[in-house]
Amino acid sequence: MGLIFKKKTRQILDRKKVVASYFVLGVCILLMAVNVGGFIFFPKLMAPLAILISNAITLILAIIAFRPINALVENLLEKRQQELLEQQQKEVELEKKVGLLESRNRELESRLDTRAQTEGMPAEIDFTFKLEQMEYAKKGYVVKEEPLEDFSSDDRYKSLIPDVSMWNKMLETLMMKEKGVRKILYIKKYYYKVSIGIDFSKIKFSFADDQIFFSGVKFAKLHDISSELVPDKGDIDHCWILNTTDNWAEIKHSAYYDLFKDTYTRMQDAETRESLEAEVESLCGQYTSIFRRNIQSRFPQVAFVESIEDSDRSWYALREGGSYRMVRDIAANMLLLTNVMNETKQIEEQASL
Fold first, then answer.
1. pTM above 0.85, yes or no
2. Quick check: helix, strand or coil at residue 299?
3. How far is CA 155 from CA 94, 258, 259, 307, in A?
4. Exposure string over 134-147, b if 16+ CB within 10 A, otherwise e
5. How far is CA 323 from CA 237, 315, 316, in A?
6. Alpha carbons 277 and 311: distance in angstroms, whole number
7. Cα separation of 100 and 97, whole Å?
8. Other CB atoms closer than 10 Å to residue 169's CB: what's the count?
9. Pairing relation of β-strands 181-197 and 133-147?
10. What are the pLDDT digits (tens) for 179-224?
11. Pairing mode, if any, of strands 220-224 and 181-197?
12. What is the pLDDT of residues 57-70, one digit of tens each?
């Protein structure tokens, strides 16, 4: 359809046809002028029959001139239609871009809000010494209240928001009911617990000149043990659609909102999980930095690398370092440092009793 329209437009706007139309129209006007001028300058030479013939010629010329005039008018209309179509397409593309930007902005705001709330949860770091691991636990509420109007440009939600019922619209129009703002209220308590530490089975070492290189010396999440946490009695877990005004609020129990609420809950679960995982990753980075710095303060010849994939040196598992005294000493200090962290936590717990 688009190709046919473009082809037709090119034919209408063909310069040769436009020039031909102007030429035919000019000739017709010229002949009409000659016809009229003959009567003006030579009135005595014109017989009554000639007057009839002249009128007939004028009518024929007018009919001939109608077609090029119609072509020129059609040409102008098609040009204007083409301009309007192009303008409309630009407006549609602009509306799409604005909608995408609004959706992305709302998503980022939601992520920042979730991150801020998860950071405010009380944290418990239990250094349970199992050679290489400790536990990190967190629990707390995520509370959000957002107008449904904010989701109208979000492709994930906009098709799930039901329209206001005709009955409510009529009541609001007749001022028999105060117009409210539809909002979603989300309250949920999250429980999160993981074991983090250094997996000594992944540590490898290599020699180069006077240095000993180690890879895999870093703290990371080892296991998700959230199931060990027992939920508190009376925990709140709500996802409600509210209709609120300055004076009152009501909960919308309609099943039409269920799909929207389910989608919103899944998104919030994913955002909260992502935020908590980011916290653990950041914490592991801090422990890794402290751990490496302490080892290097005791053994200046030690260097740490993040990856050995592109290395051309020979690498050995830590358990193979028994024949190297320096490697044994470094490994022993790694275990000792982990133990010190565990003992320090135990002293802090006893002091708080």
1. no
2. coil
3. 16, 17, 14, 40
4. bbbbbbbebebebe
5. 58, 15, 12
6. 30
7. 5
8. 13
9. antiparallel
10. 678 899 999 999 999 988 888 888 889 998 889 999 999 988 888 9
11. antiparallel
12. 555 655 555 566 56
End-to-end CA separation in angstroms for the chain: 80
Q: For residues 146 and 116, what is the distance between their CA atoms, to the nearest angstrom? A: 16
Gap between the Cα atoms of 214 and 207, Å rounded:
9
For the record, the structure tokens of 281 come out as 């990753």
Residue indicated by tokens 């102007």: 22
pLDDT for the residue 253: 86
The first and second tokens of residue 37, run together, are 């001028």
Residue type (1 letter), 162: P
Confidence class for position 304, pLDDT limits 50, 70, 90: very high
- How are beta strands 211-215 and 302-305 bridged, if at all? parallel
122 φ/ψ angles, rounded to the nearest 5 degrees? -65, 130
Residues in CB range of 131: below 8 A, 6 or more apart? 200, 335, 338
Which two structure tokens, joined as six digits, stand for 58?
């004028």
Distances in Å between the Cα of 234 and the Cα atoms of 112, 191, 231, 284 are: 28, 14, 9, 33
Mean pLDDT of 17-45: 59
- Based on C-alpha coordinates, what's the Rg of the chain? 41
**More confidently predicted of 285 and 19:** 285
Q: What are phi and psi of 67, to 5 degrees?
A: -65, -50
Q: Are 204 and 318 in contact (CB under 8 A)?
A: yes
Provide, rounded to the nearest whole percent, the portion of the chain with pLDDT above 90.
21
What does the pLDDT average to over 152-175? 69
- Cβ–Cβ < 8 Å for 247, 178: yes
Tell me what pLDDT residue 9 has.
Answer: 44
